[in-house]
Request: fold
Amino acid sequence: MRIKDIAREAGVSTATVSHVINKTKYVTDETREKVQLAIKKFNYHPNAHAQMLALGKSKIIGLLVSDISNPFFPEIIKSVEAAVFDLGYSLILLNTNYDAERAVEYVHRLIQMKVAGILLLISEFDEALIEVAKRKKTSIVFHDLGIVGEKMSNVILDYAVGIDEAVQHLVSLGHKNIAHIAGSHEIYSGRIREQAFVDSMKKHFPKAENLKIYEGDFRFEGGRSAAHQMLQEKELPTAVVVANDLMALGAMQEFKSAGLHVPQDISIIGFDDIAFATLSEPALTTVCSPRIEIGRRAVEALMLTVDRPHQHGIEVRIPTYLIKRNSTAPPSRK
Amino acid sequence: MRIKDIAREAGVSTATVSHVINKTKYVTDETREKVQLAIKKFNYHPNAHAQMLALGKSKIIGLLVSDISNPFFPEIIKSVEAAVFDLGYSLILLNTNYDAERAVEYVHRLIQMKVAGILLLISEFDEALIEVAKRKKTSIVFHDLGIVGEKMSNVILDYAVGIDEAVQHLVSLGHKNIAHIAGSHEIYSGRIREQAFVDSMKKHFPKAENLKIYEGDFRFEGGRSAAHQMLQEKELPTAVVVANDLMALGAMQEFKSAGLHVPQDISIIGFDDIAFATLSEPALTTVCSPRIEIGRRAVEALMLTVDRPHQHGIEVRIPTYLIKRNSTAPPSRK
DNA sequence: AGATTACGATGAAAGGTTTCATTAATCAAT
DNA sequence: ATTGATTAATGAAACCTTTCATCGTAATCT
Reply:
């Protein structure tokens, strides 16, 4: 069933059929009905490839993520998929495995297949990505690391506000000795979360020095070993702000198996709000990075520049916020 | 940059350029080099859409999953993505949200865009899916529920073998009073896991009757409430085989907060081997459904029928197997 | 020498849609 | 009645690649 068949059946030209389908020009009620009848009769659907060829673009969005199996991503993907689907687009998913080169290759491939837009929800980064993006044929949305410009948007997570809320929460509970288990320094969001912690601490304790900061790796084991290290030292903090939930849960487990009680002996605050944060015992107080919203807003930002040749992108700032559960309490020690 | 430009630059016809690119006919070394030079000079890449149109097919694989945020799927997706990428294909990801109608709609859409093949890694099911598949234009791979036929394969997980190993393991530890927390009866894999448990128990305890089976919902909370219910009864089993890890962890938490010790007071075996299974305290003994392999084998099966008009599909049977960790031990009671 | 074969390269059609420029038709106005 | 304006529909080009059938040349055979 080609458009030609429909045209013949309806006794009109292919152009008219096209106009009826795409509502791109006025056609008489009468002819429109004839065409629609023929379409229904043959259950006709336009050939997507021919359409793409003729239009020079496809209704496909490319989504790059660093690691699907990192619990941070699936929810983002889910909300992106839902948003994209509602708009009648399809989603091509690419997993970079934190490999910046691979990311560049993927982007090339997506551009070559003339996708409508690209979502770069990755934590690795390469200058080449920006270079590629600057060719401006394709809309791009960065995440955190990136720039705003023609056809380029950036959705950035405001880590600082949530972390400040976390510190604030601990301070108001009476904590003074607060440590931080940082994420990997290799990773941007690790560095920025640490910075946010430092800034917030400086705000609340202007004269404090030598903040206790342990570098982790964003993984369960890293949290556990940081906690282990913490337990070796002469003075244990009364609270710890951890750069992500996985490490927070690792630390919690270590503390518990050392005989400490959370939150009585030590308060713990995580970051991300992964599903398991509600399931731990005690349920983890954590800073939520609203993934559903990240996905939704990223697609929104993308669509702003899709199909608009020189449209300038926007910066979307999404706040993080504290969710109080049961892993925080007033300190039992000084 | 069109193929025409390359042809002009190299002083040959477009046909020759095409043959050089696709190695579809012999061309002289001399002309080949000229063409390759021109290609490199202009950094030419064939227009994917035109290619698809000319060939009537695309190098795209569609993957339907029930719920990306269910920890079962991301690893499958990851391995599918890797396999598909290595073959030079792209992956379109669709999330059905356990909605069979939506699945049907997705499949239609994929067929309409003439994807090379479709992977149906979903747990919902609709006869319409089979009907659609039977039109045979597109290769399809089912998972568990499905049929094998022309262009249709089925990769089925052998739940029984792993569950039998689990029961066997408990029996050899000396357990006699073994309960089951089942998944939702609405879902095929819930029913089949329960059946496998029943069969295995009948094998080991031919004269036993009234197996203790609690219906759950595959979610943490379901496991917890099943355990809660279990605790109300006069006699607590010494071991419990749970239909998935999430419920197993929920049950474990409930037992622990009731003051019981796992595994001393009660042994727990989960199913799936999600990431958190290793992180719980104690680490969860569980039956592994090898997701990496599922993804890999599914793509393998798919590729068998892709591009081969009347190729018959295959049935792939993937065994599950027990991973012994620390949530199982000999019973302390009779 | 003339006929046949093999080879390398090519021209043109096919694939199905969109859309620009054009035609045909209708109507209003002069 | 003629012209001009407006509207609805059309024809054909453009999008770009692949591939079949063809062609010309050179080599081989009788």
